[in-house]
Amino acid sequence: MKIVGISACTVGIAHTYLAQQKIEDAAKKVGDEVKIETQGTIGTENKLTKEEIQEADIIILAVDVKISGEERFKGKKVVKVSTETAIKSPNKLVEKLHEIVEKEN
Amino acid sequence: MKEFLKKANFKGHLLTAISYLIPIVCGAGFVIAIGMAFGGKSQTTLIIGKFDFFQALATIGGQTLGMLPVIIATGIAFSIAGKPGIAPGFVVGLAANSISAGFIGGIIGGYIAGWIAFAVLKYVKVPDWAKGLMPTLIVPFLACIASGLIMVYIIGTPVSWFTAWLTALLKGLNGTSNLIFGAVLGILSIVDFGGPINKTAFAFALTLQAQGINGPVTALQLTNTATPIGFGLAFLIARMLHKNIYTHEEIETLKSTVPMGVVNIVEGSIPIVMNDIVRGVVAAGLGGMCEGAILMSLAHGEGATVPFGGFLMLPTMGKNWWVGLLAISANVLVTGVVYALIKKNISIDDEKINRQKEEEDISLDDIQVM
C-alpha cells in the first residue's frame, strides 16, 4: 500500500516532525510505502510530487492547523487526524488506514 | 451542539492564527526588548533627527506588538475562508484596535470576518459577466463593511469593557493571588506536554501578553523549558540513589530531550513521559507549580516581552531576569527529584515489557474521513 500525507502543528517545530516520523516508522513496519510532507514554521519540506499523490492509495493528514495545498488531494481518499493521535497511536492509525482502503475496494 | 462545535472548529482556526502570530511576536518582542534594555521607549511616530537607535528599535517592536489584534484576526479569517478572508480579517482587526477591543476583539472579529467572507463566497450568486467582480469587489466589500460595522457598533464596546476589566484585575493581583495564579498556570501549561490544555492556556496567556501583561506567558513557557531538563536531571539524581529509572532507549532520547528543553520545546519530553504517564505528569506538574508560583509572586506578574525562546526569554525580562532563572532552576530541581524518587526501579525484563506495551486505542471522534 502507498500512503502519502502531510503533518503540521501549531508552533511548527516539534509535533510536525514527531508525527511525520511516527507515521513513517509505523507504515514501514507493515511494509507500506510512505512519504509525509511537513509544513512547519520553516516552510514546506519533503514536498509531495504530483505522481506520488496520484499513485497513493490513501492520504493521511496529521494536522492541527490549516495547511496549504489541500486541493492537491481532490478526488483521493483523505483521512484527517490531529498530530497528537498520530504521535500517540501510529500503529493503530496505519491499521485503520488499511481498513479504510480495504473497505473501498 | 457537539456536531456544530466540531464543524465550526473554533480551536483549529485559532491555532492556525497563532502559528502565524508566534514568529511575528518573537521577532518584534526581541527587537523591543533590546531597544528598551538600552533606554529606548516606543514612540507613536519617529521624527527624523529626534530619536536615537534604541528608540528606533523600541518603536519598531512596539508598533508591531500593537498590531497583534490585526494579525490574529487576519489569521483566523484566513483559516476559515482562505485567501478571501485576509482582507476582511485585516479590516476587522484594525476596527477592533480603534475601539479598544484589543486582542479578544481581534479573535472574535476574525471569526466574524472569516464566516462572512465564507458565506458571501458560498451564497452570493452573480451572473457570469460579473464573475470578475466577485474577488475584487463583492466579497471584500461586503465582508469588510459587515464585519467592521459589527465590530464597531455591536461587539466592540462590551469586549473593550471586558478586556479593561480583565486587565485591571490581573494587574491588581497582589502577592498571594499572584502566587496561586502562577501555580495554576504552571500546572496547566505542563499537564499534557504541549497538548490541547497547554495550547489553550497558551492562547489565554498570549491574549494577556497582547494586552501588556507579560507574566502569565512567561510562567507558562519557562515551565515548558524546564520540564525536559528536569527529566534529564532525574537521570543523574536516580544514579546517585543507585536507581535505574530509564531504559536504554529513553536515555538515548534524553540526549535530544534536554537540548530541546533549553530552546523551549517541551514536546521533547513526550517520548519519556509516554512510558509512565501518571508519574511523569505528577513530577512535571509539581515542578510547573513551583515555577509558576515563584515567577508570578517574585516578579509581581511582570515577565518577558517575548512569548517563546526558553533561556533566551530571560534577557528580555529586564531587572527580573534572576527571578526567571530561579523559577527555571526550581522547576528543574523539583521535577528531577520527584521523578527520580517516585519512578520505579526498572530491570531488563521490564524494559522488554515496556517496549511491547499496547498503544492507546484511537477513538472514532479523532478521525475524519473525507
Structural class of chain B: mainly alpha
How many domains make up the 3D coordinates of chain A? 1
The CATH architecture of chain A can be named as 3-Layer(aba) Sandwich
**CA gyration radius of chain A, whole angstroms:** 12 Å
End-to-end Cα distance of chain B, whole Å, is 21 Å
Q: How large is the radius of gyration of chain B? A: 23 Å
Largest interface: A-B, 29 and 30 residues
What is the 3D shape of chain A? globular
What is the strand tally of chain B?
1
Q: What would the principal axes of the Cα set say about the shape of chain B?
A: globular
Q: Strand order of the main beta sheet of chain A, please?
A: 3-2-1-4-5
Number of strands of chain A: 5
- CATH superfamily annotation of chain A: Response regulator
Tell me the β content of chain B: under 5%
Task: Quote the beta fraction of chain A.
Answer: 25-35%
CATH class membership of chain A:
Alpha Beta
SSE sequence of chain B, one letter per element: HHHHHHHHHHHHHHHE
Q: Summarize the biggest pleated sheet of chain A.
A: 5 strands, mixed
Mean pLDDT of chain A: 90
Give start-end ranges of low-pLDDT stretches of chain A.
none
Main location (chain B): membrane
GO molecular function (chain B): carbohydrate:proton symporter activity; protein-N(PI)-phosphohistidine-sugar phosphotransferase activity; protein-phosphocysteine-sugar phosphotransferase activity
Organism (chain B): Liquorilactobacillus mali
Protein name (chain B): Phosphotransferase system iic component protein
Any key phrases for this structure?
heterodimer, A: 105 residues, alpha/beta, Rossmann fold, 5-stranded mixed beta sheet, 5 strands, 27% strand, B: 370 residues, mainly alpha, 2 domains, globular, transport (chain B), sugar transport (chain B)
Structural notes for this entry:
The complex is a heterodimer of chains A (105) and B (370). Chain A is of the alpha/beta class and 105 residues long. Chain A has one domain: Rossmann fold (3-Layer(aba) Sandwich). Chain A has helices at 15-29, 50-55, 83-88, 90-104, and strands spanning 2-8, 33-40, 43-45, 58-63, 78-81. Chain A has a five-stranded mixed β-sheet with strand order 3-2-1-4-5. Chain A is globular and about 35 Å long. Chain B folds into two domains: 2-171, no CATH class; 175-355, no CATH class. Helices cover 72% and strands 1% of the residues of chain B. The chains are: A alpha/beta (105), B mainly alpha (370). Chains A and B meet through strand 5, helix 3 and helix 4 of A and helix 2 and strand 1 of B. Strand 5 of chain A pairs antiparallel with strand 1 (368-369) of chain B, so a sheet runs across the interface.
